[in-house]
Amino acid sequence: MPAGRRLRRRWIGKTTLLAQWHQQMVAQGERIAWLSLDEDDDDVWQFIPYLLQALRPLYADWDADFWRDMEEQKLSSSEQLLAGLINQLHYCPHDVYLIIDDFHVINDRGSMKRWGI
């Protein structure tokens, strides 16, 4: 499924479809992160750590300074975090996929729009 393509309606089997796709891709050796959301993830500062932890196992050569800064909350804005994440993924030698399940539970879309999500 191309980036940016989203299934939006509730209760139409999205999780099942994504789980089947995930299983196929992993069987082919692809690296895929899965992030399930709930209403508590409405705050971008709640969402970001979960996003980063979902992606972390997919790439062995993350920069230690990036993780330290993130864990010590030295990155003071979501834009800094996003820039750091993009910079890290730029050096990843393989494709990385991210499934965000239950995105429809997010009500505050303003901060997510800044991320292009």
TrEMBL record:
Keywords: Transferase. One of its GO terms (molecular function) is protein serine/threonine kinase activity. Its EC number is 2.7.11.1. It is an enzyme of class 2 (transferase). The keyword Transferase applies. This is Transcriptional regulator AcoK.
